[in-house]
Amino acid sequence: MFVAMNRFRVIKDEAGAFEDRWIGRDSQLHTVPGFVSFNLLRGPEREDHILYASHTIWKDHADFEAWTKSEAFRLAHAGAGGAKPLTLGHPEFEGFSSVDAAARGEQSV
């Protein structure tokens, strides 16, 4: 299993627009081999932003890598930078591989 996360520092007054953008987009994830699930998580509120994380689970790292190089990825991210800024800076990516399943020679989903 591989978990791909992006953390976003969303401008407080833009939280509604940020959530609407994610809810309304056609991610294309359902068409991609190895995709398991997606969640958009709202985290703590800070002085100048609200922390959000996109949390995507994949069968394995190779499937995630294939997604990032796919036409589906390009379509899902088309126009992402063209609108009014909703975040403070770029998202911070974090990728995690499952240790427990790998140690047992299994794939967990």
Automatic annotation (TrEMBL):
Alphabetical list of SUPFAM superfamilies matching this protein: Dimeric alpha+beta barrel
Cited InterPro entries: ABM_dom, Dimeric_a/b-barrel, Heme-degrading_MO
Residues covered by the ABM domain: 2-96
Pfam families: ABM
Domain of life where this protein originates: Bacteria
Gene Ontology molecular functions: monooxygenase activity
Keywords from the UniProt entry: Monooxygenase, Oxidoreductase
Protein name: Antibiotic biosynthesis monooxygenase
